[in-house]
Amino acid sequence: MKIIVNRSMIIGIILTGAMVLLAVFAPWLAPHDPNKANLDERLLSPVLTLSTEYPFGTDHHGRCIFSRTLFATRLSLIIGISVIAVSLVAGTIMGSIAGYTGGIIDEMIMRVVDAFLSFPGLFVALAVAGIFGESIVGLVIALSIVEWTLYARISRGSVISVKHMEYVSASRLMGAGPSHIFRHHILPHITSPLLVISTLGMGYAILAAASLSFLGFGVSSYPELGMMVSDGRHFLQAAPHIMFFPGMFIVIIVLGFNFLGDGLRDIFDPRDSKERWRLF
């Protein structure tokens, strides 16, 4: 058995794997309670102190930035996975129904999709997040409402391209029902593009969640990367480390999922791959 990977895949696995491990083991790696304040040690610089107790320094409340960043990374990954799961399921169901049935049902579903796409995604997410307030559920719903349309369009296009193929028509003539045809013939065909888009969408979802939190629509009761960057902008000159480390983690997470998505795309579509390594 030969497994083909490329540089993008390897870089993506390393970056995302490191972030996932830090998030999973955050309770054991964090030296402090992420919400515990200590005003006697506020605005400690990691460069000046070189302390193992505060590797990333402290913020304006004396809270450990390293501990807060670890727990914020965990929250970002939870939000990203939740958004992709909801969007993927909803979009795939709606897009598959539209593509397979066609006719007026297809027209109605795609007009709804076009209506959502006619508004800037961030504005829609801001409006929905404002309605639900500061909660993880509200943030997930707000971003899912924006994201599901992409999966609906991709799944619809894939279903339309495969439903008229000869082996699908033969299965239909042999008496196979719509559910059997979808499970055994259509779903395997649309899995690859949806997996690639889902991986790339993880980076977008996490970045969008950080953007909403930066604007004040996040979860204030729990450390969140975007909100930490927002808090640090008031101390940009006096303590730039407050913004730097959460921002660095956002960049690493987004880059990791982008590299991973590019690697998966090259594996599923070798025509787009320019440089490969063959292992095993």
UniProtKB/TrEMBL annotation:
It is a multi-pass membrane protein. SUPFAM superfamilies: MetI-like. Gene3D superfamilies: MetI-like. The keyword Cell membrane applies. InterPro entries: BP-dependent_transpt_permease, MetI-like, MetI-like_sf, OppC_N. It is found in: Cell membrane. Its main location: membrane. Residues 73-261 form the ABC transmembrane type-1 domain. GO terms for biological process: transmembrane transport. Keywords: Cell membrane, Membrane, Transmembrane, Transmembrane helix, Transport. The chain crosses the membrane at residues 9-30, 77-100, 194-218, 238-261. One of its GO terms (cellular component) is plasma membrane. The keyword Transmembrane helix applies. Belongs to the binding-protein-dependent transport system permease family. This is Binding-protein-dependent transport systems inner membrane component.
